Structures are given as C-alpha cells and as structure tokens.
Amino acid sequence: MVDAPASRMPVRPLLSESPSKASASASATDPLAAKRKAAAKDFETVFLGQMVDQMMKTVKLGGMDGGHAQELWRSFLSRAIAEQISQTDTTGIAQSVERTLQAYGSKGPRT
What we know:
By secondary structure, the chain is mainly α.
C-alpha cells in the first residue's frame, strides 16, 4: 500500500461550524429553526427506535416466554434505548435531517 504525501491530501471539515453554533445562529434569524430542530430530533428518535427494535427481535430475552407482554416490554425498552442514543447527539441523523429541512425550506413553498 502506498501512502500519499500529506500535502496532496486536502482535508476539510464535515461541518463548517459545530452543530450547536449553527443551530444557535440559525434560530436567531429563522423563526422555523426550532421546529426543524424538534422535527429532526423526533425523526432520529423514531428511526433509532425502529432500528433497535429490529435488532432486539434477533436476541433471546431470557426468561420471558414470548407473547404480548414480551412484545410490549421490548417496544418500551427499544424506545428508551433510542431516546438515550438520540440524547447523545453522536449519530448525526438529526443534524443531517435538520440541514435537509433547512435546504428545502429555503426554496420557498411549492405550488
């Protein structure tokens, strides 16, 4: 494997500002910024909940013998795990959705 010299490899940050700075500056000028942020966070939580629930379906849950109670418990646990993951702001899903919503919103209403 050949390594390219560092001078030839341009590096640019994924985000020009940190997400919290970008959100703070956007919310001062854009009245819909808080709604976009909340919608993006909700989407992230629901998406992660679905993902965790699907993963948990592949795991034997020990002493529970199946049935409605196990399904209900697993859905509550999946939602709680998803909320914890979402609160860490480490997946980038909410930030990506928020940027997408902002890009679509800047084009104005569609007719």
